[in-house]
Every structure is written in structure tokens, then in C-alpha cells.
Write a structure and sequence with these properties.
about 375 residues, alpha/beta, D-Maltodextrin-Binding Protein, domain 2, five-stranded mixed sheet, 17 helices, about 45% helix, about 15% strand
């Protein structure tokens, strides 16, 4: 894993942005354009892993707050983390967010991907049940019916979860269903639990008056990180300044979201007005955002700055990826697929970290 030298972080960020600005203006000038307005813009393509939602809200904050200076970043909706990783790796998009394991999986399968910022230290892969379901621990799943979606990112890791949590997965009756059916089956008590990414499912349940319970995979020694920023290895080598502006801008947006969640929600709904039309949309998005904010509070970000990828946990994730989702792939070289070159420049004070806890007490209560 690569790491930049001990240069003053703020100065380094400004230098990268200044270099990008100069390069962009120089390129346009060479093309014969004289307008400063034109010279200050460069089009960049960026994909989300899914529809606009709380866990990827930082993308809209980075764009709206000018953390990506001189760039016209087109943010596209995604159809899943694996699809997003594939689209980035094959060059359809220059940058994008995807669950860490999806990016590592596609790297193992041969796509020339590299992660340049770790945004979330937990994807919240989980078993979700209801308070009256009779499931209070993983062992209680034995003998129960369980809903799952095979294409959902947590599904391949169910065997690892079962092993670490100490229950026999063969004794669980798994119904493989569509995501929407999966959620409904739990409400109708046709199953006792389901597997999912909790931020995508739990807020909806709560908004409709249900009392879900969350059993996280990560609580059983499975470090499965959430959204991370990926690009192509060739782009990082050819245009490190551009990659630095995108990565550091996203890190700045993460800090803003941590400290100013309500303003962040305002930015999100201004950029995506259609997302506010549904009943309870702001409350659901806030809870999903709080899951993300909760996930950023990690020793790695506290000690090394926002965006830092801890090597030990990435080695464990690669082990899991190779065993469960890419057994026929080639183990990726962590030095090539995970870079900390742009981490460390954006930090919170100890007081700011401590002050965050009450602001996502809703998530903390769900996870206890």
C-alpha cells in the first residue's frame, strides 16, 4: 500500500488542486479557447453503487460544496456494487463508489482497479429480524426460515458469518427471493429473519412502525467495509493530481457530513428532489446517513485521517473475497489495489470525534 510523504496535508491538497487547475486551463488554451469559464471546467464521470441514498450522500456534498474544484462531475446512479466496480474497471466511469469487497473481487477477477479512499468501515452486512421473531442470537436461526437474495453483496459471506457466529447454516431453511419479496416475507412472518445491507432495509421498516433487530456480520470478526472510492490503476498512474482532487474532495465531504448532517441532507434533497417525495423520506435518509456516519468512527480514521485503509483488515477482506466470491481469481497485490496516497489530509479533532456520538444515537441503539 502506498502512502505520500510527510508534507503538510493542507498545502498538499491545495497544490494538487492548483496543478489540476493549471493543467485544465493549459489544455483548453492549447485548443484555442479563450474563455476562463470554459478553461475552469473538466468533465469527470462518477458512478454510485446504487440509487442516491444516505451511504453515498457524500458524493453530492462534494460536488455542491466545491470540494471538486474546476471539475464538472456527472454522478450516475448504480445498479449494485459489483456492477459499479465492473463499470469503473472497464473504463465506463473514471471514478465511483462501491463496497470494498466488490472492488476487491473484481480486481481478483482481472479488472485493473485501485481503491484511493476508504469511506466507510462497515457495510452493515447483517441478519435482520424482528423483536418478536424468536431470534435473539445467530444460533437461534437454526430450524428457522430465512429470506435472502443471492445477488445481494452479503449473501456469499453467509457461510463465513455462520462459522464465526457458531451456528450450522445447513440447519437454516434459506428462501432465495427477490429483494422486495425478501422484505415483505419478514413483515408477514413467513420467515424469521433475512440477510441484507442494513441501511437499505432497516429505515423503511422503522418508518412503517416495525421494530427490527440487527445482527452485524462485523461483530463476528468479519471486517467487511462499506463504500470505497475506486478508479483505474492507469488513471492513477497517469493523472495522480486528478485522482487526488477526487479522493480528497470526497474526504472533505465526509468530514462535512459527520459534523453537519442536517445541512448535508438539505444538499442531498436539493440535488435529488424526487427522493423527498415519498412519505418519511427525510427521516429514512437521515437514518441511513447516520449508519454511514457511525461507520466512519474507526481507529483508522481517528489515527490516520479520513479515507485511510488499514492494511491488516484489507488483507482479511482479501482472504474472504478469495474464499467466498472469487475462488477462481488471482489474489490481488494489496500494494496495487489499495492506495493510501491521498489519506491523512482531512482530520477531526479529538473533541469533534467525541461530540459525534450523540448525533447518531439512533443507530447505536439499533446495534446494541
Amino acid at each position: 500500500m502506498t502512502k505520500s510523504g510527510n508534507i503538510n496535508a493542507r498545502s498538499m491538497r491545495l497544490t494538487r488542486r492548483d496543478v489540476l487547475r493549471t493543467a485544465a486551463m493549459g489544455a483548453v488554451a492549447a485548443g484555442g479557447f479563450a474563455s476562463p469559464a470554459i478553461a475552469q471546467q473538466r468533465n469527470v464521470t462518477f458512478t454510485l453503487p446504487w440509487v442516491p441514498e444516505g451511504p453515498n450522500l457524500i458524493s453530492f456534498v462534494a460536488k455542491a460544496n466545491g470540494y471538486w474544484p474546476n471539475l464538472n462531475v456527472d454522478i450516475a446512479k448504480g445498479t449494485g456494487s459489483v456492477g459499479a466496480a465492473q463499470a469503473i474497471g472497464n473504463g465506463q466511469f473514471q471514478f465511483g463508489l462501491t463496497a470494498a469487497t466488490a472492488g476487491l473481487q473484481q480486481a481478483a477477477l482481472g479488472l485493473p482497479l485501485v481503491q484511493i479512499s476508504c469511506c466507510s468501515y462497515d457495510a452493515f452486512m447483517a441478519v435482520v429480524t424482528m423483536n418478536d421473531s424468536g431470534v435473539s442470537s445467530p444460533k437461534d436461526l437454526e430450524g428457522k426460515k430465512f429470506a435472502a437474495t443471492t445477488k445481494s453483496g452479503e449473501f456469499p459471506f453467509l457461510p463465513a458469518f455462520a462459522t464465526n457466529a457458531g451456528f450450522d447454516l445447513s440447519k437454516v431453511e434459506i428462501l432465495q427471493v427477490d429483494p422486495n419479496v425478501r422484505q415483505r416475507l419478514l413483515i408477514e412472518k413467513q420467515v424469521s429473519a433475512l440477510s441484507c445491507f442494513a441501511p437499505s432495509v432497516v429505515p423503511g421498516y422503522i418508518a412503517n412502525g416495525y421494530s427490527p433487530k440487527i445482527i452485524l456480520f462485523s461483530k463476528f470478526n468479519l471486517p467487511l467495509f462499506g463504500n470505497t472510492l475506486f478508479t483505474q490503476q492507469a488513471l492513477l498512474e497517469k493523472e495522480p493530481e486528478l485522482c487526488g482532487v477526487i479522493a480528497e474532495g470526497l474526504n472533505e465531504a465526509t468530514k462535512f457530513v459527520l459534523l453537519k448532517p442536517e445541512e448535508s441532507l438539505d444538499i442531498f434533497f436539493k440535488a435529488n428532489p424526487e427522493m423527498e417525495l415519498a412519505k418519511g423520506a427525510r427521516e429514512q435518509t437521515k437514518l441511513a446517513l447516520d449508519f454511514f456516519r457511525y461507520s466512519v468512527v474507526h481507529d483508522a480514521s481517528k489515527r490516520n485521517g479520513i479515507g485511510y485503509a488499514p492494511p491488516g483488515e484489507y488483507k482479511t477482506m482479501i482472504d474472504l473475497v478469495m474464499k467466498y466470491v472469487a475462488p477462481d481469481g488471482k489474489r490481488p497485490d494489496i500494494e496495487k489495489v489499495v492506495s493510501n496516497k491521498f489519506a491523512g489530509g482531512v482530520k477531526l479533532t479529538d473533541a469533534e470525534w467525541s461530540g459525534l456520538q450523540p448525533s447518531f444515537s439512533d443507530v447505536a441503539a439499533l446495534l446494541t
